[in-house]
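Exercise 7b. Backbone tokens:
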């Protein structure tokens, strides 16, 4: 047998695969490659479905415009919402867990790696199938990311597009569940010596809570999709209101926890960034861990507040559980603020995104309590107020946490530094665009502009706020373009050996991923770079502080 070349790895087939080849990537069982494939795919889809939103905002910039017709607009609306939730923010969050959790717990790899790779490919096939709806004669699915029956049955929504949407969401969600199982099993079973549960970093704890919600709530979506598929095969299924409302219960049992699946990992990434760039241990660690678990449990008890307007939900119960979410959320916010107080803040790009996350997501959280209150929800249901609330949660909040994570761990993943000037330009464009786009939507919704409206009359009084919102969307597009150019330009310079090399720990990080090389080796740690002693949830900070005390002691003795 011919020996494999130096640096070659053996992947799923057992045959030598050159590490830089495309086959080495698409068949890899290295959790870091699977995580990067998931993250990279979700970022590409982020740009694609973001373009759909830009077309919609262009349509709504002025009254009585007809850039696209109503059916096309509804396709854009549906695939944008579905793409961001099923294909971008949720898989990106799980992809971060696939990449980072084994490193943070000192494990050489992820549990069930082949199944993890299968989960990624199910997600990819699901995305392709969903987007393939645009190639059908009747176009893509056009009934919203929630697709309520009976409007989504085959009588009211004929054609192959809705069927492809159901199949695509089913595949992508199944892949997410599989990857969530792998991450949870890894953190529970593959921790290094000394890594007790209460020494896990905040990010790894967030992935435990996230994966518990994925496993507990996401199967409800699969059940809802099966019910919807049955109704498309036989529309009489939805002749009874029992199954129409039953579908909504199944869907929202998934639909509310998924918000926290798209929140916890980004919140924890922000917590890691705030601690590192404040030079302080994260404040209130134990309380934050407990709040994540309580938050995850409560998330599966509040789904009915999405259904107040149906008259089929117990208002008092769902309003009470919705307001109860303030308690664990408050603990997490106090933890972030307590970390900042008294710290020596360094305002690098990851820190800027993390700082902006805190007040912007607070707007989304507080308006969530408002729509969880029946008397307010009845007024703003299906209006642009809900659109604004959702985007302050998922864009002003989660997406800013996403970018904080990208810039924070980019040197670790690539071994080079990104361009700081490009990162700052990206930040300021995004802050401006986010608030200029979504703040006016609160006023539009309160004044009565319905969601999903394809155009509006000049006398409605919506023109100014819509124009401001569309100008803000242009800022968002410019910021996203800067981000893409910055990342691609840095990676191109890296390929030619011209990028600035990154130290193994450029930020003075606190958790174990910063103890290994950048990028990490195949099995994360080596005999030359072993896992350091685990003394708390911030072992590298402990090590630096101990060395400082030793140097101070030597200095006093001399």
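Sequence design result:
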């Amino acid at each position: 047998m011919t020996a494999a070349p130096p640096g070659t790895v053996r992947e799923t087939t057992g045959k030598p695969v050159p590490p830089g080849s495309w086959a080495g990537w698409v068949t890899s069982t290295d959790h870091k490659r699977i995580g990067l494939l998931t993250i990279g795919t979700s970022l590409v889809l982020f740009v694609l479905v973001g373009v759909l939103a830009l077309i919609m905002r262009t349509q709504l910039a002025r009254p009585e415009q007809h850039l696209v017709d109503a059916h096309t607009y509804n396709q854009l609306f549906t695939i944008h919402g579905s793409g961001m939730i099923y294909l971008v923010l949720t898989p990106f969050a799980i992809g971060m867990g696939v990449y980072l959790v084994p490193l943070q717990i000192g494990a050489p790899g992820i549990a069930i790696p082949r199944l993890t790779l299968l989960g990624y490919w199910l997600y990819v096939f699901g995305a392709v199938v969903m987007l393939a709806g645009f190639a059908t004669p009747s176009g893509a699915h056009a009934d919203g990311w929630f697709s309520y029956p009976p409007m989504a049955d085959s009588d009211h929504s004929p054609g192959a597009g809705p069927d492809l949407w159901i199949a695509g969401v089913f595949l992508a969600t199944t892949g997410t569940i599989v990857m969530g199982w792998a991450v949870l099993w890894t953190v529970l079973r593959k921790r290094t010596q000394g890594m007790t549960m209460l020494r896990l970093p905040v990010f790894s704890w967030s992935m435990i809570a996230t994966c518990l919600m994925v496993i507990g709530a996401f199967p409800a979506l699969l059940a809802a999709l099966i019910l919807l598929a049955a109704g498309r095969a036989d529309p009489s299924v939805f002749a009874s209101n029992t199954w129409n409302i039953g579908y909504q219960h199944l869907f929202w049992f998934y639909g509310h926890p998924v918000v926290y699946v798209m929140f916890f990992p980004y919140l924890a990434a922000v917590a890691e960034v705030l601690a590192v760039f404040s030079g302080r241990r994260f404040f209130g660690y134990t309380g934050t861990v407990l709040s994540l678990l309580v938050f995850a449990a409560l998330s599966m008890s509040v789904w009915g507040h999405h259904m107040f307007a149906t008259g089929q939900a117990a208002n008092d119960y769902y309003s009470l559980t919705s307001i109860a979410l303030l308690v664990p959320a408050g603990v997490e916010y106090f933890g972030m603020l307590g970390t900042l107080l008294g710290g020596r803040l360094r305002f690098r790009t990851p820190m800027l995104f993390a700082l902006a996350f805190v007040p912007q997501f607070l707007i989304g959280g507080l308006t969530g309590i408002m729509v969880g209150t029946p008397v307010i929800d009845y007024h703003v249901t299906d209006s642009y107020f809900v659109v604004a609330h959702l985007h302050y949660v998922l864009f002003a909040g989660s997406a800013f946490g996403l970018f904080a994570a990208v810039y924070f761990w980019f040197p670790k993943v690539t071994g080079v530094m990104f361009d700081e000037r490009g990162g700052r330009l990206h930040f300021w464009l995004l802050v401006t665009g986010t608030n200029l786009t979504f703040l006016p939507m609160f006023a539009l919704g309160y004044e009565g502009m319905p969601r999903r409206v394809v155009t509006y009359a000049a006398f409605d009084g919506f023109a100014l706020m819509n124009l401001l919102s569309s100008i803000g969307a242009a800022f968002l597009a410019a910021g996203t373009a800067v981000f893409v150019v910055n990342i691609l330009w840095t990676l191109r310079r890296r390929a030619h050996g011209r990028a600035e090399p990154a130290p193994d720990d450029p930020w003075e990080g606190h958790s174990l991923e910063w103890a290994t090389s950048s990028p990490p080796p195949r099995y994360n740690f080596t005999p030359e770079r072993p896992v350091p002693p685990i003394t708390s949830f911030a072992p590298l900070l402990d090590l630096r502080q101990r060395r400082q005390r030793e140097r101070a002691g030597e200095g006093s003795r001399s």
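Instructor comment: The chain has 18 helices and two strands. The two ends are 62 Å apart (CA to CA).
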